[in-house]
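Quarterly update from the structural biology core.
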Amino acid sequence: IFPTIKMVSKFSDLAKAPTDLLNDDYATKVSLKAKKGAGPVAVTIDTTRATSGAISSKVGGKFSYAGLSFDKAQLEASGGQTLETSICPAPGLKVSFKGSKGADLGCDYKSGNFVGTAKLDVKDLAKVSSSACLGLSHGITVGGDAAYSLKDTSFSGYNLGASYASGPLFAAATTGSKLSSVNLNVMYTINPQLSIASSTSHSASKHTLAGVGGLYKSSFGDVKAKVSQDGVIAASLIKEVAPKVKVTASGSMSGIDTSTFKYGLGVTM
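Predicted structure, tokenized:
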């Protein structure tokens, strides 16, 4: 009846379920993403029109060869390039490389109810970071991450977190800014069609409501809506208009001020 929330994930994805509900599908741009198989290569063309009217495009491919996965090989109209590769040399172990403006060498390891990651900035050799998550009994997951600055020879960040999943309820609490704040994300599935979520941040100086919203899976599409503490209201409609063709229409406005209205339209095929 209730959506399955993975017991063990990367620490960065600890609160993924409620944050995705509140953050995804609220774009304020017009975009078209087309995916097409060309032999062994999966080609993606992504074109976006910004609010200023400027149009930009990206062309990417994904394929595997001799055990090496080219997860993303992308060229942008502005001249930017992205290359992401990965290989699995042993069960549960994945070594990856991500290069764009920077370059990172990463390692992910999963075994049973444990997930660990490590990443090294190989371009500037400025930072190394790692994270770990451990799934316990009764739907509890705990984890943490840390980043160490090789230039400053000190920790640039470290945080802890935990999540709890039981039936229709999912909750995650993670710290921020070196344990100086706490982010609380909650999602409750009322029934298979309706889910609600909230995201708040708490520190010694202030308490912030990042957003509260919901998802309703209707016969005419998925309807999402949310409101933030500053009074911005946003809504979106996601519908599959044809097999493998998805349209997302969204809009946002600050209170009842129509001059602040922004819209977005995305088509994925």
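The two ends are 29 Å apart (CA to CA).
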